[in-house]
Amino acid sequence: MSNDKMLSIDEILAGLKKATEGVKKQPGLMKSIVGYLDVVSTYVERIATAKEEGKWVASHGTQQPLEILEAMDVRGVFNEFWGVVSDIVRLESVPEAMSVSASTGTPGEVCSFFRNMDGLMHAGKWPRSDFFLYATSCCDNVKAFHTLGRRYGIPSFGLERSYFPYTDHAMEHWKNEYKRLIVFLEEQTGKKLDYDRLKEVVARSYRLTELHLEIDKLVSHVPCPLSPECFSGTLVAIRLLPGTQKGIDFLTGLRDELKERIDKGVSAVKDERFRVMWTSFTPFFDPTLMGFMQQKYGAVSVCDMLSHWRGDAKWMLDPDDPLGNLAYRTVLAPGNCQYSSGVDVAANLSDKARRFKVDGAIFNNNFGCKTGAAYGPIIKDELMCEVSVPTLTLNCDVLDHTFVSRAEIESQMDSFFEMLETSKAYKERRNLQ
Amino acid sequence: MNTPLKALDEMIRLTSPFPESVSVKDWKATGRKVIGWFNPYIPEEIIHAAGMLPFEVTGNNEPVEMQGAEAHMHSNCCSKIRTCWQMQLDGKYKFLDGLVSCSMCDQDMRLFEVWAYYKKLPYMDSLYAPRKRDEVAIKLYLADLEDFRSRLSQYLICRIPDEHIANSIQVYNRGRELMHQLYELRKRDRPPVAGAEALEVSKAAARLPRERFNELLEQLLDEIQRSGREIKKAKRLMIIGSDLHNANQMAALETLDAVVVVDEMDIGIRRAWGQVDTQLPPMEALARYYVMGRPVDKHTWNSDGRLEFIGDMAEQYKVDGILSEIVRFCTYDGWDKFDLKKQMEQRGIPILEIDLEYGHPAGAQVKIRAEAFMEMLESRAS
To answer: Where are the beta strands (DSSP E) in A228-267?
Structure first.
């Protein structure tokens, strides 16, 4: 079986370098795109150079206390991000990795983030990992970490998170799971966790949260100042470089640029006709789709489910209790808080739709995601009922661009935006007759 | 042709029509409540101790048309939960007073949420069951069980006392003991019951008042002993994987020269294995049993023990081959496939993997594959 399209870490780094050079020459883009790509490149480079710098590498999934890894010189490879960055660098990599995965017997119905990892591991193209870390309250796919760990002889540790994490006993349990994780990491690395260092990392991480919330406010401005090339910039900083000065510098720059754009009246698109919320993930499988929507329909992506803090996100409860703070942080954090009740997620999204003045929603129904498959309709109905926001459901695969044709997507979008424009709620929201 | 088993016929009569059966109607006629559940980590004992009938929400022996269900859950949800939801939409579960689920299987949890959102019942509850098997997991699960007991007590406006739970544990332990005896009989060279019959017994366990089920199972075991019943088939099979409630499908398989002697399903062997420790405080005993007392299942992150259990059972029951049936979109089964096949190969046990939709009959395609598998087993033997 061919594996020449599957990306190695070196090819990803080279691709990102080329992309950075490319955006510098491209007019009309936000300045922060350079910082954005720098954050992504730094993340990948840190993984590539970990061994020679005496650091460890942990492949992991969602809901991890990444600050603990940072404070223990463990560099994370977030399996979902690896699929996303592969799509950015070379769209053909993921389908090929998934066909390798299928050849091992892994069914095509499981999540592509994991099938991509499975295929790359089988082909020897997954970043070298010292251990696997995983956690969940509901996603069944994380079992893959244990399974693949067993297959390739890589130690793994799973964090058990309650489905309803906000009770006292659930939060205490979650914090205790971190203590067990630290024991595991100390055993694997032979190093003790320095709690003073952890406090410093946690403090920087909280600064990232504050910046994220500031940026959210700016992005909710009408017309939206954030262009697609920098969409998810906050998520990138928080998920890839949490508790680092580099992450803070990038978000500070992004915030300042957004302020400047608002002051100067610069927006993502000249004529903002629609404000769109992605109610599951953004279209990772087609990195050009948001730009296309903006150009063709004047539809600006203003927010999504993944870049979402639950509640008011004030998670720094006690600066001297870094583990307690982190336990709270990870259940509120972007990319984590959707691992719960669909009704809860829908309520949060309704609130977000109000704050970001959303006209329409798009729900990417990822073929391999059973969580989303069942709560998609609840989100759709709740948004319509609570905030009169209609939803377009796109059946797709989170990473595989071959799952659905671009023509099919465009055809559905044509109908959706046409319907949206003539809807009563839209006209009222825009004061149109 | 073996003589029918009277006690089994009575179980089927009492659990028919499905789901609002003779026994459900009798139960409701006395003013008592029925609580539906659909995950093996819901301790029926607590519902039983509350004086209510725990009833497993499932499909049954006939496939269900699911167009309506797909308005509320997309078609990439597993067909088991879509079947159950469609049955609710069709009014088949209108007798339920409440529903309890568990996030151990995300699909089960999502069915619960859809039910809660679109058709809320007077009592709706969910638990978290751990995916690890250790003391910490027991503690977490026990805390959730205590919360469940409190909420159910509030619904009843009456505290469910420890003594009632201890009594229910004894009733359910007796049921497990009897089911285990039936499994032991199936180790015989000529087992007394077919796999399809044994499946009907397992289903009845979660559909009848447990005391009545125990009585009938005692009668069934007695009948088997007295009748000297034997199933004479050339090949012995094991069924593993997703829970299947369609006994017709298994019966179709057994029209070949084979009998299913053991399984590895939550609705089968796990319902019959182990005992809740009656020496411990009852709630703790339940937590220990449900987390650690049963064979490792596919929901547990570390499924090494599951694969080992499958291999051990296959050897103990002297099976000629294993049929691994996976309902499409079952993530847990999907991730075990690779290592399962490898480990069974190492033990020299052939395995046939079949992907199917829940509730569907053994159609021509499945039958052809099963026949080819049988031929392969035959050629190995010769």
So the answer is: none
